[in-house]
Amino acid sequence: MSRIKIDERRVGDVTVVALTGRLVLEDGDAPMRERIDALIQAGRVDIVLNLQNVNYIDSCGVGSIVAKFLSARRRGGDLKLVCLSERCRHVLEVTGLVPILAPLDSEEAALRKFAVRT
Question: How far is the C-alpha of 13 from the C-alpha of 83, rounded, in Å?
């Protein structure tokens, strides 16, 4: 298995992180956690996490998303999920996390929410 691919770009004060691959134990969850931890440590606490190209997610992946969501919020920011793949949406629905994480359909929608907040 290959490790998850992480693409990152900045849009103003917001960092967009796009994942490609499997968000699973050690193969994808650790690199994603480390990257988002580094962003938060650097003060980049407003994060859009694009999951469009995540073709599989397990409980560790879900746990990592929730942990990073809470980390960003504790530091005064937010983590917004966007473009959920069918698999990711299904897993979040089954776990009951959709109302809490409130995923959005596009990066643009998430960026607008951050703009309204500031």
Answer: 20
DSSP one-letter code for 113 = H
Q: What are 5-15's pLDDT values in tens digits? A: 999 999 999 99
Note whether 56 and 22 are within 8 A (CB): yes
In a domain, 114, yes or no: no
Question: What CATH code is carried by the domain that includes residue 84?
Answer: 3.30.750.24
Give the domain range for residue 22. 5-101
Q: What is the pLDDT of residues 25-81, one digit of tens each?
A: 877 778 899 999 999 999 999 999 999 999 999 999 999 999 999 999 999 999 999
